[in-house]
Amino acid sequence: MGLEIKILGPWEITAHGEPAALAGERRVGVLARLALSAGQPVAAKQLLTQVWGESSATTADKQLHIVVSKLRGLLAPYQDDEVIATVAGGYQLNLAREHIDAHLFSALAGQARAARARGEVATADGLFRRALALWRGEALAGMTAPWAQAESARLQEERLSALEDHVDLRLGAGDHHDVVPVLTAHVQAHPLRERSRAQLMLALYRASRSPEALDVYQDTRRIMIDELGIEPGPALRRLQQAVLRRDPALDRRSPAQRAALAAPVIPIELPAGTRAFTGRGVELAALRETLTAPPSGTPAVATIDGAGGVGKSALAVHAAHGVAGRFADGVLYVDLRAATPGRRPLSPLGALSRLLRSLGLDAVPSTLDEAVARYRSLTSARNLLVILDDALDAAQVGPLIPAGPACAVVVTSRQTMTSLELASHTRLTTLGHADATALFDRLGDPARIRREPEAAQRIVRYCGGLPLALRIAAARLAARPDRTLAWLAGQLADPGRRLDALQHADLSIRDSIAVSLEHLPEEPAGYDAAHAFLMLALPDTATCTAAAASALTGWPERRAEAALTVLLDVRLLEPAGPGRYRVPDLIRLHAREQAARMYGLRHPDDRLATA
Questions:
Q1: pTM tops 0.90
Q2: Same-domain status, 158 and 204
Q3: Fewer CB within 10 Å: C terminus or N terminus of the chain?
Q4: Secondary structure element (H or E) that encloses residue 212, with its range
């Protein structure tokens, strides 16, 4: 996941947004040739002819085998399946075509033309812009082999055609002022393209610059006679005559289309990812499979649940960046605020209002039923990715699921959304020690970590594999370059100071835990859960049972077990085997602080003093 091959400019291959080193003219040539035919077999004989040419004829077969082997080794860490498969008589690159910019460009340009044919001007405009933005220079720049030059010329012609199709769309929408500089540069770079010169003449004429439009024609005629020995074509000559007589037909444009052109109907709202993202390979693969599955009549829905600070949002955003190119109508993102300290979660109507405005709707309905109906109508035929981050429960999320079968949704929440129909569920736990260490290494100052490796390991252990805690620890060290890692490790080693040490700026373990307590259900279940939470933190044992909770609270075992289930649902407890529960260390420390503050309790026996 996250492997991208970029051909539309200098050759580039990236994995999760980071450049992946690929050296050697023949390795680059073989991978580029396979990428241009991604998903289809390429004969070994064709690869040898095109990449090796006439040299090393006696050993070329063996050299090709070695090159393919090296490429497999480079790409294997970023792809679950075999990246380069051996097929009858050749090889095949098994990489989704939208992960190769040349194929993504062609797909987006085709979708733009289809949208234009349906009269969807704004959608077509957005798709053309996305397609053209993929170009970073000359295709296959720096590759001089004849086959590469031919492919470069083919791709360049596709680009010019798409650019000119986009200009036609913009001219039809009355955008003539803004296309003049675009066309001027285009004509200078490609002086013999009559279509773009005609477009420039029309744009200038509509911008009340008729003399300049006629100058373009005279310049075109001079160049064509000098270079080709021929006069301009009949279409350009007719346009010159129409400009001279100020033909009213040249003024044709639609104000309604012009308004639609500026509408923000291709939202790209995905937050930036993080270069420090670490691990989660199994979870990423499962999310990718769900989000990229062929449409089955209903939107694809993936949920990610887990405790506060475990990295649900980071995983959702990272996974979304890897598949965003598949969604031609854009990416919607809304923070539902169920994990934002001090703020109320968004209501379904509030969240729908944001989504509808992102889809270009100015007049948002005032009732939930009307908003749901409008949202379903707007999404029924679209190809959207929707990220619903930090959801409270299924009741908040249900109205926000789009209607289109080509849509996909990612929901993050502390609660398991088992009531969402046909959703795939990913439960996120804390990082293992190796991944936690790797994350801290990426977040922190490498030089300081190398100087104090043992202290770094102690910090990682005290953070308990919780990504939020590791982020806070790294941020505190960055803010105090004069302090050692041993200083922070010493603070974390003291249970009475650990939560103080895990607080920096707007990041706080206490706040993260408190949010779960704020969203406990109403009495009596919520009251029981809150009280049991404080009691369970007092013993020194790592796990508890319903019987132990019954003894601590003085309640019947059935009541105690119901409270434990509520705490499990909001991720203040973790399952620890059949009938057993565990209070994570950082949560236990917070609960003990609360018990001491509210009841003066520091030990289980202290509860007798309150009787």
A1: no
A2: yes
A3: C
A4: helix 210-228
